[in-house]
Design a protein that fits this description.
669 residues, globular, 26 strands, Aminopeptidase, 15 helices, 3 domains, Glucose Oxidase, domain 1, Pdz3 Domain, alpha+beta, 23% strand
Length: 669
């Protein structure tokens, strides 16, 4: 497909220059670079280059600078190109996404950024030979090549008989002391405490009971029906991982009223994991062998009884060895990351500003328009070409700020990240938090843009401020530096790339419009609908926030977030909902199905959601819904469109090769 005529003049010269070896710094023929004097800091803002103490709010600024219409034009050029049908909706793995990454890299370089990704994990943000791209595998499968487990110096156990590799964890070779951690549940109803906050499992192998506290009848003490969300493996595994555990043994709990305790889950190939440390599935008999090796006369039944009542952590005088070797193969996606090196000693720390570059392609998944899903380009102008265009403008402005700083100034380095695969599960941001260029302990703040192109009534949302102590007070001192009304919000939504940083305990700011429009995730999200003046005003304000946070000598201590529901388009809240938007939430994330497999593979279950309350687990395959076969995601999605909040549905999942019939009460969206 050729470039549409509307883009031939403004874009063709860029790509002609880029791919024929022309100077990448050559001026874009359709743009006029700002005069250097207009890029330099005003006298008022230069006063901000002195260090700011923790308790000091940013100083009041001169009147807000007028809008630069040349900057508005440049902003729209970026949005127009990225949302062009020529790029096909920027789906990872497509030619359109490859061109989009080249485009962002070109303008990052032109703005004066340096490539930020070390070819080796050196942590050097602007080292020689760095790349603009941070690759990661997307949509792949794990294959278990070998797994061994035993008591060091005593006994080796047999895979398939004593233990299995369930697909809940990653690869690794680990040796360490065994620690019984009960059910691995930190807290529960009626003041139940299972794990103390100061428990240190560093380098140890956690021995965890499956399910949750139960009565003498083997049924849950937390709920009257099935198991509660507390029994979900994702939360339990992550809890002990956070306490430092290097591996986990999940024990089939003797006496539990659940048929799954009769078999081991042992998989050769699987998709997705709950944690990145080795996780083995073991029998109750094997768990008793570990207790016998300890020599204190402990009995598993007694430990289970203790765990049912509360904290039952017991260190065992047993050294275990776990070795799980896996291969992982999948398609490759890339984050595009540039850096503006900091000044002085403060340059060792950094702040980050990011926006996701990808969108839905032809709407094969995630579309809210049932009639066009899979057939028509979903341009994603607001979601999120608008945020990426802002990154480019802010990079230009901040480079001028840093160049104008006096000798001896102190400023953090600033990373600019165009993340990939956000729409399919926050994958690019998740990869960064697990594989940071520089330690996350040096990351003072992460700012995320998602949908700033259609701000209504001049109300700009800056949310998730509760993730950093003092962060809201810090921003309150900056709200007079824009013509927009900045709505400061403590709570956060787990609905964009910033959420992966919250999970990694990094303070964040989420910049977005206050309310989501009805063109969200439809072919109607085009550049013609963008309101560029207010989008540039939002960029100008966040440029100030980024500058201030790079100079700020204090740190915003991370705090557990206050959660907010995901914002929904107007039609999603009305009785006449969009034809592509269900009125219910099931509470799962989908995994990749095996070749030739029908049904919907479930990779993660939301704690407390409809699916969790029904007893669904990660790894289950949904095969029937209200008596009808579920062939794949599209067929199941049609059933969700017809479902109503509060409706009880009967469904069938395949687990460990066996069918299980369950009932779920559907939550409202």
């Amino acid at each position: 497909m050729g470039i549409p005529m509307a883009y031939a003049g403004s874009v063709g010269a860029i790509w002609a220059g880029r791919y024929t070896g022309a100077d990448p710094n050559a001026q874009h023929p359709t743009q006029t670079m700002k005069n250097l004097s207009t890029l330099c800091l005003s006298l008022a803002s230069l006063t901000l280059l002195t260090p700011i103490g923790w308790a000091q709010a940013p100083a009041s600024a001169e009147p807000v600078a007028p809008l630069d219409m040349d900057e508005v034009d440049r902003y729209m050029e970026h949005v127009d190109f990225l949302a062009s049908p020529f790029l096909g909706g920027r789906l990872p793995g497509t030619e359109g996404m490859e061109i989009s990454k080249d485009y962002v890299e070109f303008y990052f370089e032109r703005a004066g950024l340096a490539p930020a990704v070390p070819m080796e994990p050196t942590g050097d943000l602007d080292g020689p030979g760095n790349s603009w791209r941070q690759p990661f595998v997307l949509g792949g499968k794990y294959t278990v090549e070998e797994a061994t487990f035993g008591i060091i110096g005593q006994e080796a156990f047999e895979q398939g008989e004593d233990f299995g590799v369930p697909g809940w964890g990653g690869a690794g070779e680990v040796s360490g002391e065994a620690v019984f951690v009960g059910y691995g549940i930190a807290s529960g109803p009626e003041d139940y405490v299972g794990l103390s906050k100061d428990l240190d499992l560093s380098g140890k192998v956690a021995v965890m009971l499956r399910f949750e506290p139960m009565g003498e009848d083997g049924k849950s003490l937390f709920t009257k029906r099935g198991w509660s969300g507390k029994a979900g493996l994702g939360g339990k595994l992550n809890a002990v991982r956070k306490l430092g555990a290097s591996a986990v043994l999940v024990v089939n709990t003797p006496g539990a009223k659940d048929s799954r305790i009769k078999r081991l889950r042992d998989k050769k190939v699987f998709s997705n994991t709950q944690v990145d440390i080795p996780v083995l599935h073991v029998t109750g008999d094997l768990a008793q062998k570990l207790l016998d090796a300890d020599g204190k006369g402990l009995k598993l039944e007694e430990l289970i009884e203790r765990a049912n009542k509360g904290e039952a952590v017991e260190s065992l005088d047993v050294q275990l060895g776990v070795d799980c070797s896996m291969a992982y193969k999948g398609s490759t996606a890339e984050n595009v990351i540039g850096v503006l090196p900091g000044k002085g000693e403060l340059a060792k720390e950094y702040v980050m500003i990011g926006a996701h570059l990808d969108h839905l392609g032809m709407g094969d998944f995630g579309s809210r328009d049932r009639k066009t899903a899979g057939k028509v380009v979903h341009p994603g102008a607001d979601d999120n070409a608008s945020g990426v265009a802002a990154l480019i403008l802010i990079a230009e402005r901040l480079k001028a700020d840093f160049d104008a700083m006096p000798e001896g100034a102190q400023a953090r380095s600033v990373l600019f990240a165009a993340f990939s695969a956000e729409e399919s599960g926050l994958n690019g941001a998740g990869h960064y938090t697990k594989n940071p260029i520089s330690p996350l302990s040096d990351l003072a703040l992460m700012i995320n843009f998602d949908m700033i192109g259609r701000i209504e009534n001049k109300r700009l949302s800056a949310s998730a401020l509760g993730t950093g102590k003092g962060l809201e007070e810090f921003l309150a001192g900056l709200t007079d530096r824009t013509d927009l009304e900045v709505v400061l919000e403590q709570s956060t939504m787990p609905a964009s790339d910033h959420w992966r940083f919250v999970q990694a305990e990094v303070p964040v700011i989420f910049g977005s419009m206050e309310n989501i429009h009805d063109d969200y995730h439809t072919p109607r999200d085009t550049s013609a609908m963008i309101q560029p003046e207010d989008a540039v005003r939002a960029s100008m304000w966040f440029h100030q926030v980024l500058l201030e946070s790079s100079l700020f000598e204090g740190r915003f201590e991370f705090q557990d977030p206050q959660m907010a529901g995901r914002r929904t388009p107007p039609s999603a809240n009305a009785d006449s909902a969009s034809p592509g938007q269900p009125k219910v939430l099931f509470g799962i994330q989908m995994g990749e199905s095996q070749e030739g497999q029908s049904g919907v593979t479930i990779s993660q279950v939301t704690s407390g959601g409809s699916a969790a309350r029904a007893g669904i687990q990660a790894g289950d395959v949904l095969t029937q819904w209200e008596g009808k076969p579920v062939q794949d995601f599209p067929t199941w999605y049609k059933s969700l469109l017809d479902a109503k909040p509060g409706q009880e549905v009967t469904l069938t999942v395949k687990r460990d090769g066996k069918d299980m019939e369950l009932k779920a009460t559907l939550d409202p969206r």
